[in-house]
Design a protein that fits this description.
It is built from nine helices and seven strands; from the N terminus they run αβαβαβαβαβαβαααβ. The protein is α/β, with parallel strands linked by helices and about 300 residues long. Strands 3-2-1-4-5-6-7 form a seven-stranded parallel sheet, sandwiched between helices. Helix 5 (about 140-165) links the parallel strand 4 and strand 5.
């Protein structure tokens, strides 16, 4: 080989070495970023944790070293949770109707036998409520939506706050919705409940800041899952159009033209609970692919 060709090959090989090293540095950096959010031994309560966002979040927290106390009204969901490898080690599962204060109080009495303080509460419980124009909705359905979606947050927060104060700080995360930022035609009770959650969040952040308790609301967009499937079914029936058209309409409401996934919510909750978010409080954070409209 000519001297010139040898030099060209040497330069090429050196560039490849640099690119390879750069690639591994980048990979290691990304791995460090992924591992940097730790929840080791943080004690977290999740309402309605047996399925959907609640269960997805619980698994993320457990993977990051947390101790999770969850409840759900559905025994089938709870039996599934009990199959997790960390059940009765770092995962503790209880049945509870979050809209019944006596049951919520009993749930907390069981937790208090295991720990006197917690690091975080996830107020996750919520129902979709009825679909239809306001004047056609039944009063009992309206009232039940508010009871489950709002008053349950009051119950869980009420019994969690003393445990967070004993911990000398922590986090409350309230699950609202993009319906708590926009209006939501045909879903007035749901929308009202989610705006109420934002109001509770802002108020608690003011009340609890001096105790180093951070309070934030997460507003998920259109979550791909069973509950959204029921919403789509009900809206399709009410408007007498196909489910596929309803699905396409929901996805088109975001600038990213995408569904949101349960894991997306678990990850942002993980960050807000972690020591990486010590001064984030009173915020309403949309995880929604940038919602442009709700109808």
């Amino acid at each position: 080989l000519s001297l010139r060709r040898q030099r060209q090959m040497c330069i090429r090989d050196r560039l490849v070495d640099i690119l390879i090293v750069g690639r591994f540095v980048s990979l290691n950096y990304l791995l460090k970023l992924k591992m940097s959010i730790t929840l080791k031994n943080k004690k977290i309560i999740i309402s309605a944790g047996g399925s959907g966002i609640g269960w997805s979040s619980a698994k993320i927290f457990l993977d990051k070293g947390a101790i999770v106390y969850l409840c759900d009204i559905n025994p089938t969901f709870l039996n599934k949770c009990k199959k997790h490898k960390l059940n009765n080690k770092k995962l503790f599962v209880f049945q509870c109707d979050a809209s019944d204060e006596n049951q919520v109080k009993n749930f907390f009495s069981k937790i208090l036998k295991k720990t006197k303080k917690i690091d975080a509460l996830i107020n996750n419980v919520g129902i979709a409520g009825p679909t239809g124009t306001l004047e056609k909705l039944k009063s009992k359905d309206w009232e039940n939506t508010l009871k489950v979606n709002v008053i349950s947050h009051f119950y869980f927060s009420k019994y969690s706050i003393p445990m967070l104060k004993k911990n000398k700080g922590g986090a409350i995360i309230n699950l609202s919705s993009t319906a708590g930022i926009f209006g939501f035609p045909l879903r007035s009770p749901y929308c009202a409940s989610k705006w109420a959650v934002v109001g509770i969040t802002k108020t608690l952040a003011m009340e609890l800041g001096k105790f180093k308790i951070r309070v934030n609301a997460i507003c998920p967009g259109t979550i791909k899952g069973d509950r959204m499937g029921r919403v789509i079914r009900d809206k399709s029936k009410f408007l007498n159009i196909s489910k596929k058209l309803i699905e396409k309409e929901f996805v088109s409401m975001t600038s990213m033209n995408t569904w949101v996934y349960e894991e997306d919510i678990g990850r942002i909750c993980s960050f807000l609970i972690s020591n990486d978010a010590p001064r984030i409080s009173g915020q309403v954070i949309a995880v929604d692919g940038n919602t442009l409209r709700m109808h």
